[in-house]
Amino acid sequence: MNRTVLIIGLLIVVAIVFVLFACLGKDPQHIESPLIGHPAPPFALKAVGTGETIDLQSLRGKPVVVNFWATWCVPCYEEHPTLVANARNLPDVQFVGVVFNDTEDKINRFLDERGKAYPTLLDANGKTAIAYGVGGVPETFFINPAGNIVAKFEGPLSTEQLQADLAKAMR
Amino acid sequence: MIATFVLLVMLQVKVPDAAQAVGAPQGTPLSGPPLERRTMEIASEVRCPVCQGLAIGDSPSLMAANMKAEVREMLSRGYTEAQILSYFEKSYGQFVLLKPKFQGVNALVWILPMLILAIGFVIVVSKAKKLETAPVAPAAEPEVGEDSYLARVREMVEKQ
To answer: Of A82, B41, B49, B65, most Cβ neighbours within 10 A?
Structure first.
């Protein structure tokens, strides 16, 4: 009897330790995107400042970087210079910013103060963010010339990370 | 909802439409109190992606408010609960469903508690049966114990 109890107890402890080791290092906010390998949800949104409508479909034929951000998001301040610098250095790649739950005034002020190198679109009711499965900002999607999502990155992008994910979109 | 559509048309913008992901609505468009009731019911089944284990119906976050508005709009257009949950699942994966589906590794969530309960039940029943069939201790034995105890007491008394 004592031996059976010991074995069952050990099995339970081993199972708990296994689960802890397997899952403790994981980010609970990380969402594995089911959209990777699938066509990017289409959208056509107005660009802040110019009022021009940017249609994702019209960008087919070149890699597209879609960055979801907001002026109330602190890490977005951190990654903005990286995005602007890379957008200037990579003319063959189309960068697009999509802002949700924000106002045009605040976005314009942010861009005036911190620089702009690509269109920033206003997703007024967050519908585009929902269609892309955005959990928080910043989040960046990499779309290949055929219009399929090939990578998604959560959090502020570094140049290394951006170029690594962009390489997947250029294959 | 209609106001949102009109506003989007006025803004000349095209946002991703649920129909592209889950097809045409298969239910009856709702409005008024039934719409609100169903919105809350479905919102309690969808996980807020920016919270820790909260449903979008319970979360005060802006993201959850957007998702709840999406649920309301889809219900008002006649989408069924299954279509709405499928729409969110296509964007966020099964993570977004607070009630995991009975498939793959998720099936363990449903099977394990029942399995553990069944094993416990079998153990309890087998132990109970063993107790029933165990030979009853002979009545004389306690007396033997008692006798030896009394003998020791007597011995100690005598020594004094």
So the answer is: B49
A48: nearest Cα among A117, A121, A118: A121
Residues in B 120-149 with any Cβ partner in A closer than 8 A: none
The number of residues in chain A equals 171
SS3 state of residue B78: coil
Three-class DSSP category at A133: coil
Mutual angle of helices A74-89 and A159-170, in 10-degree steps: 50
Name every chain A residue with its beta carbon within 8 A of the beta carbon of B50. 29, 135-136
A103-159 pLDDT, tens digit per residue, is 999 999 999 999 999 999 999 889 999 999 998 899 999 999 999 999 999 999 999
Per DSSP bridges, beta strands A94-100 and A120-123 are parallel
Amino acid B10: pLDDT: 53
How many other CB atoms are found less than 10 A from the CB of residue A16? 10
Residues from chain B that touch A132, judged by Cβ atoms under 8 A, are 16, 91
Q: What does the block give as tokens for B151?
A: 């003998």
**Nearest Cα to Cα of residue A131 among B12, B6, B2, B22:** B22
B52-56: which pairs have CB atoms within 8 A and are 24 or more residues apart? B52/A28, B55/B98
- What is the rounded average pLDDT for all residues in chain B? 85
